[in-house]
Amino acid sequence: MYLCKKKNMAIPVLDSVNVITHRYRTGEEPVLVMCSDMNAYICKYMRSSASAYKLSCELIGSLMATAWQLETPNIAFVHIKSGHWAGHVTQHSISAPTLGSKRMESVVDITPSTFGDVKTTPDILRQLMKIALFDFWIANEDRNANNANLLYDVGRGRLISIDYGCILNTATFDYAMTQLTTTDTILWSDLFHYLAKSKDNATIENIAENIKEQYVYWLKRSQKQVDLILEELPNEWNVPRIVVEEKLKQLFDRQWTDEVWKNYIECLKENTEYGEVKI
Hints:
3-stranded antiparallel β-sheet; 9 strands
């Protein structure tokens, strides 16, 4: 049975309108779906109980990134009609809604061969440093030197954060969160070194100070998303709300948020070309 379209849902509920013709060859094998709002969405879907927790992380990560005022694709719950799966041999639960990220136009996928197209402006560097702090806070183990999980909007000069299935220490709901290591962060990447190398130490310090001033504000905005996440979590994913609620509480524990900042700064210092930044 499909997800009920509740009144005043913050996340749109859409239907597929065409047979699926494209599946991405990445880990979760998402599919490209044309939806009833006449936009295309990259949809991840239920394949197992483990994938349900990853879908929950996608939902959490997207809504928290929005609270942090990061650029991230709009999302929707997408019901793919059974006949529209034709030609795709994949395990999935047709009755469970997929989670779709709206496909964005005129963007470049940041890879080791494309990061040189990114403008080396202080604003772009600030965007990346803010994304890095977000990843430390939400324990995102999938954005690193080998996998940026970023798009670049050339026209607007914006970095776009994508893919949240590996937040919360790769969807670990049974144990307390652990801090990222130095190499498990975008600050270890060639992209960060490319952007930081073009700036002096004072610029990096000023950006970090500005981010520090905003950190508590972003946490407060994020805390307001908890009820929304629990409300929007589809019953069909069979992920207990109490488990999600307990996990989200860890994100706002004072010891966790303080350790996140300390770890972030140490990693920033370690990866700065100009020696230790004074923060």
